[in-house]
Design brief:
Number of strands: 4
Number of helices: 7
Order of helices and strands: EEHHHEEHHHH
Radius of gyration: 22 Å
Number of domains: 1
Structural class: mainly alpha
Strand content: 5-15%
Strand order of the largest sheet: 1-2
Oligomer: single chain
Largest sheet: 2 strands, antiparallel
Helix content: 55-70%
Distance between the termini: 54 Å
């Protein structure tokens, strides 16, 4: 059994490595796009089947967004980003329990050992992907904040003159706000990566030691953890969006 923190390259396009996490991430992205296109072409006034499930999920998410914003207009503005992040992250998390993930791949010799390089690996277990999502989340908050309250007022959250009340205290708080924006990137990316990677390692160890019925509870645990992590990531994004469009005085 081989455990690698970094995603393993499967093949190269020129000098660009196409890793197992990139393959899975592209597959999930195409799956979401295809499902959305099919649903749009077959949408009915009275929902049934797949449309019923999708509408139930989206309605639950919209109500959750409403509970945070307390403003339906803001909810509709934030909802596309928050819902997209939730759906993409939960699928990326849950895909790790699918048969073949981490167990089907190529045999390679590394360091004198014969190791397995899996064809498929959850994108959430790749720090590059979680960091990219974190950047999208944080940058979206900055852009929407500037669009909502203007460049001057938004910059006033971070750059406070030391010669105006509350004087140097306000400047210190502004510096802390800048640090907190950077900390969000670290917190977002490492929280999701750490939880999913740890779950992936746990499943690999259990499947290696006891390959039959014992790992089943851990599979259900990973489904629960995957849901919680997707919910936390999307809800924190929503909270940061709400904070970004609120003026400093409030």
């Amino acid at each position: 059994m081989n455990i690698s923190i970094a995603a393993e390259p499967i093949f190269y396009i020129g000098s660009f490595p196409v890793t197992n996490t990139i393959i899975v991430t592209l597959f999930i992205s195409l799956l979401i796009i295809a499902a959305s296109a099919i649903l749009k072409s077959r949408i009915r006034l009275i929902p049934r089947g797949f449309q019923n499930i999708v509408e139930a999920v989206l309605e639950a998410l919209l109500n959750l967004v409403d509970s945070v914003t307390q403003d339906r207009r803001q909810s509709k503005k934030f909802f596309p980003l928050v819902a997209t992040i939730f759906i993409f992250v939960i699928l990326s998390n849950w895909v790790e329990v699918a048969p073949g993930f981490g167990t089907i791949g190529l045999r390679e010799v590394s360091g004198g050992k014969n190791i397995l390089v899996p064809f498929f690996r959850s994108g959430s277990a790749d720090l590059n992907m979680t960091l990219a999502l974190a950047i999208i989340s944080v940058m979206s908050a900055q852009i929407l904040g500037i669009a909502a309250i203007g460049v001057g007022k938004y910059a006033g959250k971070f750059f406070v003159s030391p010669f105006r009340p509350p004087y140097f205290v306000g400047t210190f708080v502004g510096v802390l706000e800048i640090i907190s924006e950077v900390a969000k990137l670290i917190s977002f990316s490492f929280r999701l990566f750490g939880n999913i990677f740890a779950g992936e390692v746990l499943l690999m160890v259990m499947l290696f030691l006891v390959p039959y019925f014992v790992p089943l509870p851990f599979l259900f645990l990973e489904l629960f953890v995957g849901f919680v992590q997707a919910l936390v990531f999307s809800m924190l994004t929503l909270v940061f969006l709400k904070m970004a469009v609120t003026e400093a005085a409030h």
